[in-house]
Amino acid sequence: MTQRFHARTSEVGGIPVARNLPTRGRRQIGAWCFLDHIGPVHFGADDAGLRVGPHPHIGLQTFTWMIEGELLHRDSLGTEQRIRPGEVNLMTAGHGISHTEESVFGDRDLHAAQLWIALPEAERHTESRFDHYANLPCWQDQGATWTLLTGHYRDQSADTLQFSPLVGLDIDCAEAQEIELDLNPGFEYGLLTLTGGVDINGDPFLTDELAYLGEGQSSATLTCQPGTRLLLVGGEPLGRDVVMWWNYVGYDKAEIVEAELDWEAHSPRFGSIPEWPGERLQGPASPWRR
Questions:
Q1: What's the burial of 177, exposed, middle or buried (CB within 10 Å: 0-12/13-18/19+)?
Q2: DSSP E strands: which ranges in 176-279?
Q3: Which of 63, 84, 90, 277 has a Cα at 20 to 30 A from 130?
Q4: Cα dihedral across residues 80, 172, 114, 159: positive or negative
Q5: Residues near 246 by Cβ (< 8 Å), separated by ≥ 6?
Q6: Which element (helix H / strand E) includes 256?
Q7: Does the reported pTM lie above 0.90?
Q8: Rounded to whole angstroms, how far apart are CA atoms 117 and 63?
Q9: Rounded-to-integer distance, Cα 187 and Cα 167, Å
Q10: What is the pLDDT along the chain (290 residues), one digit of tens a residue?
Q11: Cα separations in angstroms, 227 against 25, 87, 212
């Protein structure tokens, strides 16, 4: 049976976002462990847009899918990369990295999905890196535009770096349309309505409602309203829950506390971003510190 999860409103970089993962009753979908839906939003002439100052990550990949507008990414590896509509930014934190994100000056619109992928326990200390994907598989089928963000779907493959079996798929329906969606029975899946509305096997879902499809299914029938855009995420279940606090992902509380202390101490582990004109972000202290 399809489960329904409602987003809660949070704030990132000065703008409200719809947070869909983690949520009460569902912390992960495969290795996907965090999902924010940003926008669509139009900034006024006096708005600075999105501005997220230097902050750390461990044990994960940050995954940004840009639908409208542009963002500028900088990180402690020295990366400076704009992301435009139809592109993915993928940052592998591994043992530790820090980064910033901000709207591009003069860009008044923003619509994006930002996700985290938990690294497998054996890979959680892997070397940090950044990858940008400007040319993703995109095709027309069943009256919709499909873009494969990561993994494999039917005869399409994306070369997006993975550490565990995953899939990410954007489905854009300008007109009312019924779609047959192929699923891997070995994966668990979530389907988020970004705009519009969709019936999933007869159950209606509205914008910012996350449908958890579970495991063991080979297909789903989607009936899309006009102007519906969907984000499908799926993957093999990790087999255990990760530990998350602020911007850290790990497999025990001690490594989260260690990362907190390293960030507060300005450890070389997280480097620096000298181009950022403001202060570093400081997260709340975890409850596991003594």
A1: middle
A2: 177-182, 188-195, 197-200, 203-206, 209-214, 219-224, 228-235, 243-245, 248-250
A3: 277
A4: negative
A5: 260, 283, 284, 286
A6: helix 253-264
A7: yes
A8: 7
A9: 9
A10: 799 999 999 999 888 999 999 999 999 999 999 999 999 999 887 787 899 999 999 999 999 999 999 999 999 999 999 999 999 999 999 999 999 999 997 778 999 999 999 999 999 999 999 999 999 999 999 999 999 999 999 999 999 999 999 999 999 999 999 999 999 999 999 999 999 999 999 999 999 999 999 999 999 999 999 999 999 999 999 988 999 999 999 999 999 999 999 999 999 999 999 999 989 999 999 999 97
A11: 29, 21, 22
Q: By the 8 A CB rule, do 66 and 109 touch?
A: no
151 near 166, Cβ under 8 Å? yes
- Nearest Cα to 151, choosing from 123, 108, 187, 112? 187
Q: What angle do CA 89, 122, 92 make, to 5 degrees?
A: 15
Rounded to the nearest 10°, the torsion over CA 249, 23, 67, 100 is -30
DSSP string of 258-285? HHHHHHHTT-GGG---TT--SPPP-PPP
d(CA 168, CA 135): 15
Do the beta carbons of residue 52 and residue 100 sit within 8 Å? yes
**What is each CA distance from 44 to 48, 49, 71, 81, 106, in whole angstroms?**
9, 9, 17, 25, 10
- With tokens 């971003």, the residue in question is 273
* Cis before 22? omega within 30: yes
